[in-house]
Design goal:
Order of helices and strands: EHHHEHHEHEHEHEHEEEHEH
Shape: globular
CATH architecture: Alpha-Beta Barrel
Strand content: 5-15%
CATH superfamily: Homocysteine-binding-like domain
Number of helices: 11
Number of domains: 1
Number of strands: 10
Length: 292
């Protein structure tokens, strides 16, 4: 799979924090995955709303459907079923939206532990086994490509990329960065790209960071690669609480976020979307301005 060099791809916005906005309790450790068990219709409606708002890419609700997470709540026997269901829900949403443009489904793979906690990254043998299991399951579903997102170390991103690459499916890789524009681990984006080139990613991206960190992160990423780059940052609210995100007293970031999207496009960014705290209103706003 190759990206059209003349196209700006609109990625959807947040799913976990959007569940919260719609009064669904996203308790940790399952967070957004909980809705796959007791309210799959809500997940489908969120996917569909993002498509109708202008998204070209929707991301499966598989951010917390790994064996490790499900085992914490006694559901380790549900790994295959729930990952398959997450993709099927995205397909249903795409079919119901019935828009006259191509909609791609990205299979989400992320860190096995909290993406903000570098010290929790498991041993290599666990990374290989658990990322391998989830990648193999998702590769048997109708995803168009893997989206490896919110990786905070080279070591784990390399294990996940190897697992995705082994399936034969295309992949894109996205890092969570610190205020200096490096990975949260302190490792440089250049070193990460150098290690991951062997897996032939179709794009590198940055995600789950505040708007204030995007300029330096994007600059370092674009200096590190000639491949397409993407970015999807955080919108309203901030990380915290047992539900995973706090909207109390949150500033409305919609106008500023849309302005940043225009800057990113002018800088040659090909994939633009939203992460935590964004919603279909954000997608509608930046899809309109980016396509104009």
């Amino acid at each position: 799979m190759k990206l059209d060099p003349n196209k700006t791809y609109i990625i959807d916005g947040a799913l976990g924090t959007e569940l919260q906005r719609r009064n669904y309790e996203t308790a940790l450790p399952l967070w957004s995955a909980k809705a796959l068990f007791d309210n799959p219709e809500l997940v489908k409606n969120i996917h569909k709303d993002y498509i109708l708002a202008g998204a070209d890419i929707i991301t499966t609700n598989t951010f917390r459907t790994q064996y490790r997470t499900l085992k914490k709540v006694g559901l380790s026997n549900e790994v295959e079923r729930i990952n398959q269901l997450a993709t099927q829900i995205a397909v249903w949403a795409r079919n119901e939206a019935a828009v006259d443009r191509e909609i791609l489904i990205a299979g989400s793979l992320t860190t096995l532990e909290d993406c903000y906690e570098v010290g929790l990254v498991p041993p290599d043998k666990d990374l290989e086994r658990e990322h391998g299991e989830q990648a193999e399951i998702l590769a048997r579903t109708p995803i168009d490509f893997f989206l490896l997102e919110t990786f905070n170390t080279i070591r784990e991103s390399k294990a996940a990329a190897a697992a995705a690459h082994a399936t034969g499916k295309p992949l894109a890789i996205s890092f969570v960065a610190n205020s200096d524009g490096d990975l949260l681990s302190g490792e440089s984006i250049q070193d990460a790209v150098d290690e991951l080139e062997q897996f032939d990613p179709m794009a590198y991206m940055i995600n789950c960071i505040p708007l204030s960190h995007t300029a330096v992160s994007l600059s370092k990423l674009q200096s590190a690669t000639n491949r397409p780059v993407g970015i999807y940052a955080n919108g309203d609210g901030e990380s915290g609480s047992d539900e995973g995100w706090v909207f109390e007293n949150a500033k409305n970031e919609l106008e500023e976020y849309t302005a940043h999207c225009n800057i990113w496009k002018d800088l040659g960014v090909q994939l633009i979307g939203g992460c935590c705290g964004t919603n279909p209103e954000f997608t509608q706003a930046y899809s309109v301005t980016l396509q104009s």
